[in-house]
Specification:
There is one protein chain. The chain contains 6 helices and 16 strands. The chain has 258 residues and is of the alpha/beta class. A 7-stranded antiparallel β-sheet has the order 4-3-7-1-2-6-5. The chain has a 7-stranded mixed β-sheet with strand order 11-10-9-8-12-13-16, sandwiched between helices. It is globular. The mean pLDDT is 96.
């Protein structure tokens, strides 16, 4: 897929939690085609301690409005600088990068999308594209507490939403793999993104039930092109760059202890 270097315009900055912002970006021309699970590399200007681009998952693409959404966790100098942007500012992005999730083979396929923390970001676009193709996804979203849940109402536009929180302040208490929907229903495919321990647990559940599973890895990615080798993951095919060969992998290819 062709890659572009674009100066995008910030159309809006929306605060979605005390540490997360949603950047709604637009372009002077039509945005290129992007697949769910792909990401962009963002150049962070006006941050003297940020030298490398920051990889951010594609949260959503609104084709009618010609908007690209990036859900940003402001946890470091680079992402805090991004969170401080205002409408009208410009943001230089390389996109789209990496390989995305596998789309359902038929509308009847039962797909479970599992996300934790800011890892829910790519699942919104995946759910929207699934719904557009006539398939209704099931979302299972996890967070530490109710205040950490992100975009729950938006997920509800595209499928059923189930929630877990570690403190029980929303949904069922516990981790995503503790949710009762996993015991009461069956699925044909599971796709997940979030903290590695969560994804390993999801992969363990999928493997135990013979369910095909894909995981979107969040390794540190500096270049996004497979040149710097800092995002290498050990796989059944040897060491692979997550930014180029992933970030989405079938769990059968990963050397996780599940």
């Amino acid at each position: 897929m062709k890659k572009y270097v674009l100066d995008l315009t910030v159309r809006a900055v929306e605060r979605v939690s005390d540490k997360h912002v949603l950047l709604r970006l637009t372009a002077d021309t039509a945005l290129p085609l992007m697949q769910p699970g792909q990401f962009v590399e963002v150049r962070v200007d006006h941050s003297p301690t940020t030298f490398l681009r920051r990889p951010i998952s594609i949260n959503f693409v609104d084709r009618d409005a010609n908007e690209l959404w990036l859900l940003v966790a402001a946890i470091g100098d680079g992402t805090r600088a991004m969170a401080s942007l205002h409408a009208g500012d410009r943001l230089n992005c390389v996109l789209p990068l990496g390989n995305g999730f596998t789309m359902p083979v038929s509308p009847s396929e039962r797909v479970l999308l599992v996300g934790g923390g800011v890892g829910v970001a790519p699942l919104l676009y995946m759910g929207a594209e699934m719904r557009r193709a006539g398939c209704e996804p099931t979302f299972l979203l996890g967070a530490r507490s109710a205040s950490d849940l992100l975009e729950v109402d938006l997920f509800g536009r595209y499928g059923r939403v189930f929630v877990t929180t570690e403190d029980g302040s929303a949904g069922e208490r516990g981790f995503v793999t503790d949710h009762s929907v996993l015991a009461s229903e069956s699925f044909d495919r599971v796709q997940t993104c979030g903290p590695k321990p969560m994804m390993v647990a999801v992969a363990r559940y999928a493997s135990a039930h013979g369910i095909d599973c894909e995981a979107s890895l969040e390794n540190m990615m500096a270049c996004g092109l497979g040149a710097c080798l800092c995002c290498v993951e050990k796989t059944t095919e040897g060491n692979l760059c997550v930014c180029k060969e992933g970030p989405v992998f079938n769990i059968k290819k990963l050397l996780w202890q599940i």
